[in-house]
Amino acid sequence: MRKRVCVITGSRAEYGLLYPLLKELSEDKKYFELRIIVTGMHISPEFGLTYKEIEKDGFKINERVDISLISDTSAGISRSTGLAVAGFAKAYDKLRPDIVIGLGDRFEFFGAVTAALISRIPVAHISGGEITEGVFDNSLRHAITKMSHVHFTALEEYRKRVIQMGESPETVFTVGALALDNIKNLKLLSRKELERQLGIKFDTHNLLVTFHPVTLEDNSAREQFWDLLKALDGLKETKIIFTKANADIDGSVINKMIDEYVRKNFNKACVFASMGRFCYLSAMQYVDAMVGNSSSGIIEAPSFKIGTINIGDRQKGRVRTESVIDCLPKVQDIKRAFMICYSHRFRKRLQGMANPYGDGKTAGKIKNILKKIDLTNILKKSFYNIKFNAKR
């Protein structure tokens, strides 16, 4: 009997990561009936109506859950989360999935998982056990773990953390990071093709900049991003490619600052609400570094042998390679990070680094586990107690 699998996606970046898995599930019609629900930024004009990218890739969208992303205040995000719970409950009632699958820690997915829990639908969670201390997503991720029934972690360290939270080892699988599947399997664009598609011209030096709010710090978005812009101002012969912030608290503050900066520096800077996974990964081939606080600088960038200037605490706690240069969100600290990044010693060191996040075969591993896993009585979970050999 085929499993009716419902995959949730709410943002451009998340869909890019899920794409290899969606492809695997959609092509294996003997074992799976794929259903896709889009929500959040995908159906927001402000964020580029990126559901169109999903349809362009040949996938059928079965339901859309509108959570009204009209405000990035605390109250607005809370309201959107509540709408997600109600909207997904209605969608599940219509689609009747055997299992719900989603990735990460976004508030949209938290709402989707809450609705699944109450609707008595099993959840498979991808990328649990990770830590991002600078954002409330950290707590949402752990809460999603406790509401989920099957867990796919990127690293063995993360698997152990999920088990530490009381999840049975039999339900927790180390599979690597989905992000690396795209890098391995996609034929990325050449430099000229990418320039033509994006409508830009690369310079002697090039940077890809993605900066999101640190949601556990009050009024930090404007101040931190201003310091980053001041540090970027000092760079010569450098093309700065911005991608806009997610729909987090104060995300619109950063996006407005990007638009203003690009307007004043159109000769050296450009901005994209969504580059799409294809252009985004293609761009990584030709930039000197990832700059900001996106997880892509931690997980994907090492595969391209480029540096990452990781600013502030948003990604604090994630396993990282030596290609990641951590710095404070202050002008002088960011400038020092650029000096390290462009140093001969650092550039030479990059060439010998390996990415610890897997082998680019994660989607297939997840699919094969989903084939075999028995969903009978999976909703009834027992807390797994770890025996500690504590000294008395």
Structure description:
The protein is of the alpha/beta class and 392 residues long. It folds into 2 domains: 3-177 and 358-372, Glycogen Phosphorylase B (Rossmann fold, 3-Layer(aba) Sandwich), CATH 3.40.50; 189-350, Rossmann fold (3-Layer(aba) Sandwich), CATH 3.40.50.2000. The protein has helices at 12-27, 51-56, 74-95, 107-118, 137-147, 156-164, 179-185, 191-198, 221-233, 251-264, 276-284, 296-299, 331-341, 344-350, 362-372, and strands at 3-9, 32-39, 63-65, 99-103, 123-126, 150-153, 172-174, 205-210, 238-243, 269-272, 289-292, 307-311, 324-327. The strands form 2 sheets. A 7-stranded parallel sheet has the order 3-2-1-4-5-6-7, with helices on both faces. Helix 5 (137-147) links the parallel strand 5 and strand 6 (150-153). Helix 1 (12-27) crosses helix 15 (362-372), helix 3 (74-95) packs across helix 4 and helix 4 (107-118) packs parallel to helix 5 (137-147).
Q: Keyphrases for this structure?
A:
alpha/beta; 16% strand; 13 strands; six-stranded parallel β-sheet; single chain; Rossmann fold; 392 residues
